[in-house]
Amino acid sequence: MKKIKNIALALCTVGALSACELDNFEGPDAGLYGEIIDKETGRKVPQDIINGTLIEIWEYGYDPVTPQRLEVKTDGSYMDTRLFSNMYDVIPVNTNFHNNATESIDTLQVEIKGQTELNFEVVPYLRVVDANISKTGSKAVATFRLEQPIDSVYLNAGDTVKRAVVIKEVGLYAHLDPNVGKDMNLGKTTVTVNDVIREGENDVYSLEFDTSRDTDFVNGGKVYLRVGAISDMPTARSNYGSTVEMDF
């Protein structure tokens, strides 16, 4: 019996030492933050909160390396304050801006030490401009135009034929949450476009959403609305105007 007690005591001691070692393990001591910025306008590029642009980071010193993915907020900013000081490869993925043979974004080697700022200057697939959302009775009425900074691109190095950047769809999205968008809405009005902006064209899009016809909005209150447009580029995410808060 005494021998069993001694073994048990030894195991407890080992367990306590292991716990101490874990307690002494240093936690995250660094972070990465920044903005996605339109290189022409200098403004942040609005994003989706669900299925939107991600900042993919690969920490050095591990094999195999598993990437971490930082979500970009709807206002075009991102932040993660719980990283470890180290060298990382950093690249945006699943974007609403160009990253191809015509307009490329390089994978960056970044030393993350303390709170490190890293901004990306990009060319969006589309720009929502002159957007206006007004209220007429129970309806939200949106008008806007689109700009196409680059109308055709070489997708891959070595391509000899450019691919047109086609506007696939435009939409007006509504939600009770300010992070409203294509994949986060309680109601929407969309129109298929499947066309490009030709030289000299200046089309104004007009979309309506009737809150009285949707059970999520029949009780009135604050509704958040945003217009967006998506291109047919591979893995493209939507481009947006500003979010508008409206009382119904």
From TrEMBL:
PROSITE patterns cross-referenced by the UniProt entry: PROKAR_LIPOPROTEIN
Domain DUF3823 positions: 31-122, 127-242
InterPro entries assigned: DUF3823_C, DUF3823_N
Name of one Pfam family that matches: DUF3823
Record-linked Gene3D superfamilies: 2.60.40.2060, Carboxypeptidase-like, regulatory domain (2.60.40.1120)
Superkingdom of origin organism: Bacteria
Stated name of the protein: Uncharacterized protein DUF3823
Annotated organism of origin: Marinoscillum furvescens DSM 4134
